[in-house]
Design a protein that fits this description.
This protein is α+β, with helices and mostly antiparallel strands and about 300 residues long. It contains eight helices and twelve strands. Helix 4 packs across helix 7. The longest helix is centred in the first third of the chain and has 25 residues.
Amino acid sequence: MKKAEQDWPALPLGEWESTYRTLHRWTQIVGKIRLGFTPLLNHWWNVALYVNPRGLTTSTIPYQGGAFEIQFDFVHHRLEIRTSDGRERVLALSPKSVAAFYRELFSALHEVGIDVQINTKPQELPDPIALDGDETHASYDPEYANRFWRILQSTEAVFQEFRARFLGKQSPVHFFWGSFDLACTRFSGRACPPRKGIITSEAYSRECSSLGWWPGGGDVAGPAFYAYTAPEPPAYGGQPVRPEGTLYQKKLHEFLLMYDDVRRATSPRAEILEFAQSTYEAGANLAGWDRASLERKPSS
């Protein structure tokens, strides 16, 4: 296998969607645990997971004077719980229902002295089934779980490079378990008109330009890179952006660049950076961002 194929593997939605739907709910359980012990940060940054050399991690979660971490290891296909006092538990990532995963995880947490309760209603999902009672979603294909993580790892490195170009307020590169996407967001420094909804009122309280990667679903028939500006400036969707193949999705109010086009390119990194920069410029210019003070001058 060529290195490019290793870094940017195929991820056809139809072949792994059942694993995707199950894994989405598993990450919601773990993410809600982090949510329960961390103070609210602007735009819900305290709830996200992070890409690491094995998979996805909560990072350090404070607990009763100590700390713990939960990690999805998509190399050895296990869920790992580690505490600051040296206790560990490992659960197999294998075909099992969301409810079974929930029971195993909370039992393991109890064994290492962590007492936690979560809201079991899934977030941002149609027709939600309570996480502790979901026997419907029960798939796990290790090959596709590993491919998913490898794409996140490769994408995260490029997003970090793009992130380094900005001096203003911006988010980490982080994984949101509600929408199941990897994202990085820049902010102009200006407030937005208030929105309704617990999630969106906080997430979009400040004018922003967001870049992300998502496995697809609904009207998007496969994984894609996306970009949007919020609030969306007039004529944003009609702006000329790059690279070739980028489309504006009116229903989502986002520019999309399909992942398969990127992975087949001579330089996937260059394609992503061109998409990120041109879509950011389209929104920032229309919205009148103070780009001179917000952006880092390129090194000579």
